[in-house]
Amino acid sequence: MIIIYHPSGNTARLMYIAEHIFGSLSGVAVSITSDIKYFKRHTGAAVNYSTEPLDHGIWIIPDGLLSETGHHNIGELHVSRWRNLPAPFFSGKGDIPFDIFAAAFYLLTSYEEYNSPYLDEHGRFDHLVSLAFRYNFLDTPVVDRWALILRDILKEKYPSFEYTPRQYRHISTFDIDHPYLYRYKGVLKNTYGIFRDILAGDWDKITERLRVIFRIGEDPCFEVIKWIEDLFANAGERYILFALFGKRGKRGLSTIYPAAEWHRLLPNLIHADTGLHPSYETYNSIEELYKEKSFMEKVVRRNIQLLRRHFLRYTCPRSFREALNAGFTDDYTLAFAGAPGFRSGTCVPYNFYDVERDTVTELRIHPTIVMDTTLKFHLKMTAEEASDEITRLSDECRAVGGDFTCLWHNSNLTDSWKNVFIKTLNR
Is residue 317 reached through a cis peptide bond, with omega within 30 degrees of 0 on the bond before it? Predict the structure, then answer.
């Protein structure tokens, strides 16, 4: 048990972030009190979260963010340094010279993204303007690192302080945008593909395409899905698979016929926890989200509770509210398409906190740390460079006992990037 003294009557935000810092990362129960006499009588681990030096507990001076209600534009944040880590909400006073609780709350709630005008071409919050990117800490789980340092400080001051460190987990997730590379694409699309390959002189691809079309060979993208299932079945482990069920189009499904073979396979992937990959169009249509969820549930014959949005296309808080209203419990969308790392400063799952409504919701956010297409297409990395970056990011997660949640596409595992995935899995 750790007790926090805070004189304000409004403790919802403080409790939310304290439970993440102490509960989720260290298995420690938290109690908040405004009774100064009770606080001073407490002989165990304690934090004084007030503006007054009480000569009791670890002193952290509040910035004021956690005593507010609703969302406010707080302007440009200055970020200092503390123990080689960024330190927003810096005061230079107290045992910890910045408001670690406010800083963690700001990042975990995606506070800067509310009503932001800085959107990319897909309506997503632009990573280039994020605090983490501008101050070069996107590649570090700073919330988790702050939490572990605070835990060490408390242990030093209170030797009897006991905690249970969280254990690292490697979580493989797959987005199935294209169950097929050649099959069910129609005459025009395949004819165009053949002429394109002829112009490129890629006779191996022409041969492969024709073998698949005439059912002499198997479709490589579809075979990868079955290979993934076999791989995890043999290892006795589970994985997470998100299936796209939107309309056909440039940013949607590329097959022109009903994918009956894919729909037969999907409910039989018994080692997968399956979720919906809501289409590009669901960003502006909750009705489409409902429709796609209902359709997938008919295909797999069970309730769907997990989602990751196509193109990582979401906006905070509207998309999370819609996910809740549609009956989802776990959202794996949180990541930047243009850069890998820790978008909310953590690699530990947490419940979505609706800042405008000051409510802790039941929707569980699972930060995705790295996506294959980010490395391969956005950053133009080679397979070797990508493997090194993935190793570095997984080591960051391992150091804090977090979840290394990585995102792969079956369509990217048909070439040398398959070896990158295998190497990542075997670490």
Answer: yes
Phi and psi of 91, rounded to 5°?
-115, -25
Does the pLDDT at position 409 exceed 90?
Answer: yes
Asked if residue 203 lies in contact with residue 388, where contact means CB atoms within 8 angstroms, the answer is: no
Domains, the chain: 2-69+84-157 (no CATH), 169-181+219-425 (3.20.20.370)
CB distance 345 to 331 below 8 Å? no
- Which sign, positive or negative, has the C-alpha torsion 328, 107, 51, 32? positive
Q: What is the DSSP letter of 77?
A: P
**177, amino acid identity:** D
The distance in angstroms from the start CA to the end CA of the chain is 35
E-strand spans in 70-224?
79-82, 85-88, 169-176
Q: Which tokens hold the place of 56? A: 């009791």
- The 10 Å CB-count burial string (b at 16+, else e) for 281-304 is bbbeebebbebbbeebeebbeeeb
Note the pLDDT tens digit of each residue in 148-174: 999 999 999 999 999 999 999 999 999
Identity of the amino acid at 394: S
pLDDT tens figures, 88-132:
999 999 999 999 999 999 999 999 999 999 999 999 999 999 999
- Percentages helix, strand, coil for the chain (3-state, rounded to 5) are 40, 20, 40
